[in-house]
Amino acid sequence: MTWRLTGLNLLLRLIEKPALARMRDPTIARDRLTNEARRLNHRLPQTNVVSDRIAGSEREIPVEWVSRGRADRRRVILYIHGGAFIMGSPETHRRTAAALAEAAGARAVVPDYALAPEHPFPAAIRELLEIYRALLAAGYERIALAGDSAGGGLCFSLLQEISRADLPKPSAIAAFSPFVDLTMRSASLYRNRRRDPMLPVSQFRRIVGFYLGDHSPRDPLASPAQAEWRDPPPVLIQASRSEILEDDARAMAEALRKGGGDVRLEWSARTPHAWQFFANWLPEADAALERAGSFLAKRMNGEAPLD
Questions:
Q1: Is 149 a residue of the active site?
Q2: Does residue 171 carry a catalytic annotation?
Q3: pLDDT by residue for the chain (307 residues), tens digit each?
Q4: What radius of gyration do the chain's Cα atoms show?
Q5: Strand-strand pairing, 75-80 and 47-55
Q6: Which of 16, 130, 243, 246 is catalytic?
Q7: Is 273 tagged catalytic?
Q8: Which among 16, 242, 273, 284 is annotated as catalytic?
Q9: What domains are there in the chain, each with its CATH number?
Q10: CA distance 63 to 93
């Protein structure tokens, strides 16, 4: 464990976790995340960022195209940012998307998808499906999905909709600390509530309420770990054994394997939830994204099975 990880865990435990526990207003939470990301984003070496809009059924959806170094323009990663369904943007996750894209030798497209509570379930999933259709229409044949936390969960919600629409499946998925069971039944929510340096379990029912409203959390589209899968694409899941979403990662892997999927589940011992967010600053984040990028690159090249 590097000294930066030790310091980060201490900072999160003393400052970030109490602040999140007190948070009641999604607007304040959004501003806080944006300000934190800007402090980390002030140095993004050789990162290419292009703002764009993709036509949707209800609005033009803002996106960022992000790359670093030489990117194969035939390959694209649809990166779905985290933020508990209520916050986050292409700006907040630009650093993570750029590092992953570089490691995969591809470009990433990061949507500014509809956030709850203003746009509750399933608004975000509908917009993500529209973006996926647009990528297919643009001629992309090698598409990967990736995301962190709530964004990781949305990858699997989107995959269900892709299958229902009988669209070509993505080449692979990389999910970082995915939030995939909104029923609040995961044992690690309580087993790891003190070990987790960042996430306060006391906020989870409020977050689920913002996102789902009166909709049942047992709906597999809302809780992909509850879904029945059939021949999903190759999946990499990275999670921490100290986070309260530990069992979400495990349940998601088991559900996919039951459906015939090839799944690589990578565990980290002491990293915080979605530590990949700290790319270009935290060595453990850089190493995780390098492995994830290599995984996606191989799958987009058609290399299989998992090693």
A1: yes
A2: no
A3: 799 999 999 999 999 999 999 999 999 999 999 998 888 776 577 899 999 999 999 999 999 999 998 888 889 999 999 999 999 999 999 999 999 999 999 999 999 999 999 999 999 999 999 999 999 999 998 999 999 999 999 999 999 999 999 999 999 999 999 999 999 999 999 999 999 999 999 999 999 999 999 999 999 999 999 999 999 999 999 999 999 999 999 999 999 999 999 999 999 999 999 999 999 999 999 999 999 999 999 999 987 655 5
A4: 18
A5: unpaired
A6: 243
A7: yes
A8: 273
A9: 3-300 (3.40.50.1820)
A10: 12
